[in-house]
Write a structure and sequence with these properties.
Elements (H helix, E strand, L loop, with lengths): L1 H6 L7 E3 L12 E6 L2 E10 L3 H10 L7 H17 L1 H12 L3 H19 L10 E5 L7 H12 L3 E5 L5 H14 L6 E3 L4 H8 L6 E5 L2 H14 L6 E4 L4 E5 L5 H13 L9 E7 L3 H13 L19 H16 L3 E4 L12 E4 L14 E7 L4 H10 L2 E2 L1 E5 L3 H10 L4 E4 L16 E2 L24
Parallel strand pairs: 1-3, 4-5, 4-7, 5-6, 7-8, 9-10, 9-15, 10-13, 12-13, 15-16
Antiparallel strand pairs: 2-3, 11-12, 14-17
Helix pairs in contact: 2-8, 3-5, 3-7, 4-5, 4-7, 5-6, 10-11
The protein binds adenosine-5'-diphosphate.
């Protein structure tokens, strides 16, 4: 039924989006929003916010003064509306973000979980005031909703800027939040690119920023906040990762292969939690690599809205070119172990396996379906952990082993926000397994955890 919903009624539907503000905003530049799997098709049209609209939205913003119980009820109502409109949300996730249906189902679920979880944490303590929420395209519904629902639960006014690649799903979600009863002064949507985000995060009316995206952009925003915003303005950042997994000779190979394929290639590798560098114990490596390349052969790459698709497109031509340049460089050095065929049209990138000496050979996070593999000797596992920690990131880490002491030893030594043992390195559960990293990967607290909403409240030191 979900597939029919996502497909049939929306096959030719076009969405229209624009700034959603507490005043009559003039229409800015209007542009088509492409479909990454079929770039000649459009998903709809978006009108961008201008710097003037951003300034006026900051002036019009007013913290949500409804009592906490009313705020909670309205956020719960928004969760109901997301659930009622799931078919349309799936269709937008597949068409605008290239998400496979399985990914889309999980994403709508996560967004609903965030709304209900943070609704329960609405309390009477004072909000920061006006919060800017800047979100990425790779979880255009879940992260967008998670940031703003925490900010709203605490009673803030939110100025939300979705990623330029995925404005239409954000627009639809904001409409549903307004329909549920969130006042327009408490939630305004400002579609645009980095310049709109920069205008927002340097406006002195903004009292705090929640950001998810690249580490580089986080550092730019942090600097701008220090210059333009009140001292002590909270900055909640979730950024990149350079995530590793260790597979030792006691691991169950079939289980490890499934976990690796899902962790590295689902969502076409466009997850900050995705596996980038796999370490396999030397003794089992030749056989293990054969199994892994066999599993890669079975991956289906294609249109995200087909149920049998494992790997959809990457988000745009620029992303594709960046990944291709990395793979070409490895190819020239003879390090590509395996690559797979892909469709000709659309922004598809072949799932690829590249040999490296270790994680230190990766200069940056490659945000696509590219997995790097290194081997290690049994007695050198601590060296591997040191190399992983030395990247400075600390988001996710995976371990496949049947040695109990090793689970203890490795997980206390590794710096990572989320550690996955004998399973895929994917996901979080709002409430019970919150998500977030350390070091270059983020500021904490973890999203979907008990402390998250507190960061959107005013504390003594700030007032
Ligand atoms: P990604 O690699 O996920 O595209 P970015 O960090 O470029 O990561 O983008 C994440 C979000 O940050 C997007 O909404 C983007 O428009 C926004 N952004 C980019 N540059 C800036 C900036 N200088 N100030 C504020 N927001 C920005």
């Amino acid at each position: 039924k979900a597939i029919e919903e996502a497909r049939a009624p929306f096959e030719r539907h076009q969405w229209i989006g624009a700034p959603l503000t507490a005043f009559e905003a003039p229409l800015g530049d209007t542009q088509p929003v492409p479909n990454p799997a079929r770039p000649l098709d459009t998903v709809g049209q978006i009108s961008w916010a201008t710097p003037d609209t951003v300034a006026a939205a900051c002036d019009a913003a007013a913290p949500w003064d409804a009592d906490p119980a009313t705020r909670a009820k309205i956020l719960e109502k928004a969760a109901d509306l997301y659930e009622e409109n799931y078919g349309e949300l799936f269709a937008l996730l597949a068409r605008e973000a290239g998400k496979s249906l399985l990914d889309a189902i999980a994403e709508v679920r996560e967004a609903v979980d965030f709304l209900r979880y943070y609704a329960k944490r609405a309390e009477g303590e004072p909000p920061v005031g006006v919060f800017a929420c800047i979100s990425p395209w790779n979880f255009p519904l879940a992260i967008f909703t998670g940031q703003l629902s925490a900010a709203l639960a605490a009673g803030n006014a939110v100025l939300a800027k979705p990623a330029e690649q995925t404005p239409l799903i954000a627009h639809r979600a904001a409409e549903l939040l307004h329909e549920a009863g969130v006042p327009k002064t408490a939630l305004q949507l400002l579609p645009g690119a980095g310049d709109v985000g920069a205008a927002l995060t340097s406006n002195p009316k903004v009292g705090g920023v929640a950001f998810t995206g690249s580490t580089d952009t986080a550092q730019i925003i942090h600097k701008s906040m220090a210059k333009n915003l009140a001292p002590g303005a909270p900055f909640i950042a979730e950024t990149g990762g350079l995530n590793a997994m260790i597979v030792d000779s006691t691991a169950l190979p079939e289980q490890a292969i499934v976990a690796i394929v899902e962790s590295a290639f689902q969502s076409a590798g466009q997850r900050c939690s995705a596996l980038r560098c796999l370490y396999v114990q030397e003794d089992i490596a030749p056989h293990f690599i054969k199994m892994l390349t066999g599993a890669m052969d079975a991956l289906q790459i294609g249109r995200p809205w087909e149920i049998t698709t494992d790997v959809g497109p990457v988000i745009d031509a620029e992303a594709k070119a960046g990944i291709a340049a990395h793979v070409d460089a490895a190819e020239e050095e003879g390090r590509v172990i395996k690559t797979t065929p892909t469709p000709d049209s659309g922004h598809f990138v072949a799932p690829t396996l590249i040999k490296v000496g270790g994680i230190e050979d990766l200069e940056r996070e490659i945000f696509g379906p590219v997995l790097h593999i290194a081997t290690f000797k049994a007695d050198k596992i601590d060296k591997v952990i040191d190399a992983i920690n030395a990247t400075g990131y600390g988001l996710t880490f995976g371990l496949q082993t049947r040695i109990d002491d090793r689970v203890q030893h490795v997980s206390t030594r590794i710096h990572a926000g989320n550690i996955y043992v004998n399973r895929n390195q994917i996901g979080a559960i709002v409430g019970s397994q919150p998500f977030g990293g350390e070091g270059l990967s983020g500021t904490g607290p973890k999203a979907g955890g008990p402390d998250y909403v507190n960061r959107f409240r005013r504390h003594e030191a700030q007032s």
